Amino acid sequence: MNEQLRDVRLRTGSLVLRPWLPGDVTVLLDAYRDPAIRAGSRAPVADEAAAERWLRDQAEGRESGLRHSFAVVDTALGAGPVGNVVLVRSGPCPGAGEVGYWTAAPARGRGIAPQALEALTAWAFTVFAGAGLVTLDLLHQVDNEASCRVAEKAGYGLVEVLPARPPWPREGHRHTRRAAVPGR
After folding, report:
1. Most buried residue, 10, 85, 112, 141, by CB count within 10 Å?
2. What value does the mean pLDDT take over residues 126-133?
3. Taking phi first (over 0 means left), then psi (-120 to 50 degrees means alpha), and beta for anything else, what does residue 183 get?
């Protein structure tokens, strides 16, 4: 794995997107106590061991180059993470990836999620253009209206309603954003 990609930090406004650190265990546990974050997570974090495992998984994902998870720090609110954004590049199509995010309850309603998602998206389309990345999907449960708003603000259009399937008990939305094509 390219060391520059492993240690990358992104900045936008008062936000810093940085790799998750072992010292972020407490922040992670606090965030996952929120029912909204647990409900939208494919890998809930219930205790310190699970938080440590989650942090290891993020580091391993970076090492593999297939998962780039960023702790979102809003310097206007302090030095600790208030959210997460992630790019997952796996599956049969190298031209497609998936993004996700969450924002801790005390930081919601400040525009952090769309701003962080936009920064991640711009970075992904720039860094992985040579690898053929042209499409990013954002998936969420159909009843998550806040995620629809975040997706729209970050330029992800609603493409389809997905059927319910484990681990999701309800239908979902797939929002998509495509890389800008030069000259168009």
Report:
1. 85
2. 91
3. left
CA separation (Å) from 155 to 42, 79, 148? 24, 28, 11
- Residue 44, token pair as written in the block: 């809930």
Dihedral angle over CA of 47, 50, 54, 57, nearest 10: 170
d(CA 181, CA 143): 33
At 23 the three-state DSSP class reads helix
Cα–Cα distance measured from residue 57 to residue 76, given in angstroms and rounded to the nearest whole number: 28
Alpha helices (H) in 17-173, listed in sequence order? 25-31, 35-39, 48-64, 112-127, 145-153
pTM of the predicted model, to two decimals? 0.92
Residue 102's φ and ψ, nearest 5 degrees, are -150, 155
